[in-house]
Design a protein that fits this description.
Structural class of chain A: mainly alpha
Distance between the termini of chain A: 59 Å
Number of helices of chain B: 8
Order of helices and strands of chain B: HHHHHHHH
Structural class of chain B: mainly alpha
Radius of gyration of chain A: 17 Å
Strand content of chain A: under 5%
Order of helices and strands of chain A: HHHHHHHH
Largest sheet of chain A: none
Distance between the termini of chain B: 25 Å
Oligomer: heterodimer
Radius of gyration of chain B: 25 Å
Helix content of chain B: over 70%
Number of helices of chain A: 8
Largest sheet of chain B: none
Chain lengths: 170, 221
Amino acid sequence: MKGDEAQHAFVTLLERHRGILHKIASAYAREAAGREDLRQEIVLQLWRSFPRFDARSKFSTWMYRVALNVAISYARRRRGEGRIELAAPAAIETVPGVTAPPADDRLDAVLAFVNRLDELNRALMLLYLDDYPHAEIATILGISPSNVATKIARIKERLRRDIAAQPPSQ
Amino acid sequence: MELDELKAIWAKHDERLERTAQVNGEMLARWGVRNSLKSLRVLFGSVLFEAAADLVAIVLIGSFAADHYRNAELLAPAVILGAYAIAIFAAMVGQAVALAAIHYDEPILAIQIRLQRLRERRIRTTLGILLFAPLVWLPFTIVAMQGIFGVNVAEADPVWLVANFLFGVAVIPVGVYAARRFGPRLKASSAMRAVADEIAGRSLAVALEDLAAIGRFAGES
């Protein structure tokens, strides 16, 4: 593919799967500026890796792998700099001309739970929430499907404990 | 709330993103690739600049050594300084090559382990450079004074030379102590704090712990 043609194909695919970009950015960076930085880094690595993308495979799976690798590294780097990324609210940037959706407490609770997980378990959880089968999660992460099942069971247990520990809502 | 319930809420999150992120998509098409390519060029530009500057230093030191090869008291510091500059250059090139060989579309665990090992290597290299810097202070002074001003400091009083060398040696433990004691208080400058964390060994400890955490994640089942 020539330069312009490749760039057009890349932007088209990115546009189609932009939800992945926003979801990962909101799961790994709290502040708007951080999310913007992370999105830029992800797009950069996606573009850099694009010549290696095999068009016979699913772009979304490939994109998840690249984006999660970048996001995990980003979160570790921020932690190393002493900037702890706390649980994010329902992080959706409003853009001029688009009305912001109403706040959703349950979604905030889900994002807060996801953000309390360490970077690798967070990646696993994002894939699970997006309905990826265990085998595919295993391939993306590079662990065995039985390991994926074990970790999901542990996360379920942790979710139950977290809910049990929360005070009942008024 | 169960995980399946979380999935349903997450699907709603998807719909909301789809509605609100449409303009972001257009913005991405207009700015994303262009800005990303620009930052990639800046990154490679800074690496190239550092490598070029180090190469210039190696060439200048080499030229100095060639000019003074008959004079052992000038040749010896030039050789020490040259070896230091070559070691820095080799470490920088080695890290750049290792980083360029990492492709983020490979399985996450494999990439994260490689990135963490690279981070550990980078921290150890920086630590080596910083800790050896006070020891090359004296050779640097001798070479710079002769090269720039034509003054042969190596002919100075041996007591002065030994005192200078011992001063360099003493700077190392004092530097490590200061980094451990005062590093966490350096909140105004993140760059200074990063250097202090590396000298104090805190960055290395964090990198090794992160590597161990990845190992635990891979090993659990």
